Amino acid sequence: MQNLELNDFYLAAYLIASGYEMLDISRIGNQSIFIFEGSEEIRRNVGNYYANTADVNAPRFAQEIKKLKNIIHTTYTEPGADYGNKGN
Q1: N or C: more exposed end of the chain, with fewer CB within 10 A?
Q2: What is the pTM assigned to this prediction?
Q3: 15 SS3 class
Q4: Tens of pLDDT, residues 22-67
């Protein structure tokens, strides 16, 4: 299945907090694109997020938001960089 590419920062943090590995981040201008391995399960979770039926551990979600902000604001993202769930 094709990778899932999205530009919703909080959705990306939710997916990471839910246990999905982010494969990469790419940049188009000043916009970040978050890349995940595509599957029916992750697509269902995206639907749950937008339907406001998603369930996630709040402290972990907050932690992933901080991590993503750090990556975006302090790191030049290069293709193939591993930004997965390290240290969780």
Answers
A1: N
A2: 0.80
A3: helix
A4: 999 988 888 899 999 999 999 999 999 999 999 999 999 999 999 9
